[in-house]
Specification:
- 61% of the residues lie in helices and 0% in strands.
- The protein is an all-alpha fold.
- The chain folds into two domains: 216 residues, no CATH class; 119 residues, no CATH class.
- Helix 2 packs antiparallel against helix 11 and helix 5 packs antiparallel against helix 8.
- Bound molecules: zinc ion.
- The site of zinc ion (ZN) has 3 residues, from helix 3.
């Protein structure tokens, strides 16, 4: 279940899917994606004065549950949830960019169009919006990689991909594929290991069917991904072309992947926070600390770099030292953060991704043509049975 607050994603544009499942969130509101005048961060991150969901409240809840459950599998799971969200603060927001700006690297693009006044002039701290286009393209990439990575078909063995494909076949609406055929196929597959020894022709036809089916999900996904890839590019342009728009996309801001120039800095900051908060929880579990301390120390990291004091008492000024160190040792990557360079890189990446999707689409063919072949082969198998 995807919940924006668990990844500090910007909920801008999320529609109400709570009718599909009560655990999905309601439609986004203007208030939750507005700027908190006290910090310059968008409200859904850590402004708990409204009735919207915040990542800060989520982290607090998970930490309290972890502390209460002790060092048990459940306790560790809640701790993992909280630490994951703290990590995402660095990889999904413009925190590192704003940090470098504060340190005087004024060429770094802030991923915000203009400064706001409160409480001192600063660019707003935002995270990327993970709208349905970004979600579907990311999922399509992952699924595509998993399916194409599955092993070659071994006669007489039902592979993991065949299991997945059976599940997917069952999701094809009955107007396209008669589900009775799919159920019969499943029964046949169950007997196949024995059967194929005495009926080599049937074995070959089922092999053929497996090959067709292994292409089918990719063909469907490729067709969908092509449509969504274009929409992602549109969402990216929507931010770049509108100076009053606060909401870049997930793919514009995300430092999740090691090809982003700031990946290592974001990861290093996240690891240090995880080390600190993990240590504090371990203290609570062994009777050496309080959960109030853990919550306070964790939530202090949801902060705009402009509000971090260059003093030992702040407890966060180490991030300046880490960022200075990174900037000293990565002058070439620093240049990649200039507006022209980073936008150029993203458009190139988006174009390459689109080209990959298009090539895959051509390799797999149109889903309709594959479905026709699947139907034909199923009928052939039925004729033999
Ligand atoms: Zn996440």
């Amino acid at each position: 279940m995807y919940r924006a607050e668990e990844h500090i994603d910007n909920p801008h544009g999320i529609e109400d899917h709570s009718r599909d499942d009560k655990d999905f969130r309601k439609k986004w509101t203007q208030e939750e994606v507005a700027i908190d005048p006290a910090t310059g961060m968008l409200n859904y991150i850590a402004n708990r004065k409204g009735d919207w969901v915040t990542s800060a409240a989520y982290v607090e809840n998970e930490l309290r549950a972890a502390a209460a459950l002790g060092m048990t599998p459940e306790g560790l799971r809640f701790l993992g949830n909280a630490l994951h969200t703290l990590e995402d603060f660095y990889s999904h927001s413009n925190f590192t960019e704003l940090l470098l700006l504060k340190l005087g690297h004024l060429q770094v693009y802030p991923w915000a169009h203009r400064k706001v006044q409160a409480p001192s002039p600063r660019y707003p701290l935002v995270t990327g919006k993970f709208g349905s286009n970004d979600i579907q393209v990311s999922l399509a990439y992952v699924l595509n990689e998993n399916l194409t990575a599955t092993k070659e078909y071994v006669p007489g063995q039902r592979t993991a991909s065949t299991e997945i494909l059976l599940i997917l076949l069952k999701d094809i609406p009955s107007e396209y594929l008669d589900q009775k055929q799919v159920r019969r196929l499943e029964v046949l597959l169950g007997f196949k290991e024995e059967f194929v020894k005495n009926h080599p022709l049937m074995g070959r036809m089922i092999d053929e069917l497996s090959k067709l089916m292994s292409k089918l999900p990719n063909a469907i996904l490729s067709a969908q991904a092509r449509k969504h890839a274009t929409n992602v590019t549109k969402s990216q342009e929507e931010f770049l072309s509108n100076p009053s728009f606060l909401h870049p996309t997930h793919s514009q801001l995300s430092k999740d992947h090691d090809d982003h120039p700031l990946h290592l800095l974001a990861a290093a900051l996240a690891m240090e926070v995880v080390r600190e908060i993990g240590g504090l929880i371990a203290g609570v579990w062994t009777g050496k600390g309080t959960v109030e301390t853990v919550v306070r120390e964790a939530l202090k990291y949801f902060v705009h770099p402009e509000d971090i004091q260059n003093a030992a008492t702040d407890g966060r000024s180490w991030v300046f030292e880490w960022a200075r160190q990174w900037a000293r040792t990565n002058p070439a990557k620093l240049q990649l953060l200039e507006r022209g360079a980073i936008i150029n890189r993203q458009f190139t990446e988006a174009k390459q991704a689109e080209a990959r999707i298009r090539a895959q689409g051509e390799a797999y063919g149109a889903p309709e043509a594959l479905l026709a072949k699947v139907r034909g082969t199923l009928q052939g198998i039925e004729g033999l049975a």
